[in-house]
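Before relying on records like the one below, remember that each one covers exactly one chain. Contacts with other chains, cofactors or solvent are not represented anywhere in the record.
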Amino acid sequence: MTQPEYPTGPQQPSGQSPYPQQPYPSQPADQQPSAQAPYAQQPPVQQGYGQEPYAQQQAYGQPPAQPPYQPANAAPQFVAPSPTPPGQGLSIAGLICGILLGPLAFIGIILSAIGFKKNKAAGAPTGLSVAGIVVSSVLFLISLAMVAAMIWGVFTIMTMCSDLGPGTHWINGTTVSCG
């Protein structure tokens, strides 16, 4: 049994792509060809005194290039790290304590206040200290309000139980057990 042969379309001559290629744009007749190819490498730019050119990438397996020459009397160039303001750590600790400790947020207020004083004396920014003081104060006040509400609730239940006596009582659809 033989397989029928199906035509696969027009055959391309060998070495030619089946896709048409656009010709390169030609220069107008009135223009002279440029002396430099459009994608040729530009000549290197002269570096100023003390500037190093960009490092070239090394090929894989090649030894690293030697560092550029520095005169013997040239001082090493480095950038000193900027000092941390003296109260920065206390400000951060105060902000974290104010957020995490709830009723003990007064610790955050104290730490942030000390950080504020140290930063202000050093002329450093005080924004983090102020944020710690504000957040700690607000959360401390909220915690005080919650503690006051719990104390008031317990006091109300104790007063109600002293009036009703021991046992289980139904008041406005709520069961109150007094013991």
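The two ends are 102 Å apart (CA to CA).
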